[in-house]
Design a protein that fits this description.
This protein is mostly beta strands and 214 residues long. It is built from one helix and nine strands, in the order αβββββββββ. An eight-stranded antiparallel β-barrel has the order 1-2-3-4-5-6-7-9. Strand 2 and strand 3 form a beta hairpin.
Length: 214
């Protein structure tokens, strides 16, 4: 609990002490391809399918020491997984609709705080990013009548973000943003003596970046 609170406070405080010179802002949207790693104590790890959902976010970036900057972001991200199974009739024979799909979704507010290393190339800019991340659970969808798992998920998880991207300048104050990143969780979303669950996801985003006032 204390560790989660400390990290959350860092997300709020560090941007305020970063350089105040001309921040850049961005609006981003795209897809998140998410997986959940289930590890049962006695049954091993079942193989569930990935789930594709939405990622919508805002970011602010403050220059530090060239070419390094500090970026703070707020995203709404849909994570989870998909269960596929073979439908059988009473004689245990496959039915006409043999494969059934159960969509399991968990919604988060994701708060990455990342250092970015930029490389200008003409009027464009390429960048690498890496840093810590806090995800706050805000909702879920569980396809079964009794929710015995997702309702017990931790309200917050600690993880990391790494990514690459490019900004194609439209004019001096605006650019088109393209980004791909990976979310890795260090803490478990769920933990008991029988089962642990962790999230991981890949995001592909496009957006608009614009220069703030100086």
């Amino acid at each position: 609990m204390c560790r989660n609170l400390s990290v959350t406070l860092a997300f709020l405080v560090l941007p305020l002490i970063a350089s105040a010179a001309n921040p850049r802002f961005a609006l981003k949207a795209g897809i998140a391809t998410a997986e959940q790693e289930f590890n049962y104590t006695y049954l091993g790890s079942p193989d569930f399918d990935s789930r594709t959902g939405l990622d919508i976010g805002l970011s602010a970036e403050w220059p530090l020491l060239r070419p390094i900057s500090l970026g703070a972001e707020v995203h709404y991200v849909q994570k989870g997984m998909v269960i596929r199974f073979l439908q059988l009739d009473y004689a245990r024979a496959p039915t006409g609709r043999s494969i059934s799909r159960l969509d399991n979704r968990v919604d988060y507010i994701s708060l990455p705080l990342a250092l970015r290393a930029s490389m200008p190339l003409g009027n464009h800019r390429f960048f690498l990013l890496a840093g810590p991340r806090v995800d706050l659970k805000i909702g879920h969808e569980w396809p079964f009548e009794e929710d015995i798992l997702y309702s017990e998920f931790d309200k917050s998880v600690i993880g990391a973000i790494v990514g690459v991207g490019a900004v194609i300048e439209v004019d001096r104050a605006m650019g088109l943003l393209f980004e791909a990143n990976y979310h890795h969780d260090y803490s478990h979303s769920y933990r008991s003596h029988l089962l642990t669950v962790k999230n991981r996801s890949w995001q592909i985003l496009i957006g608009i970046e614009f220069q703030g006032g100086g």
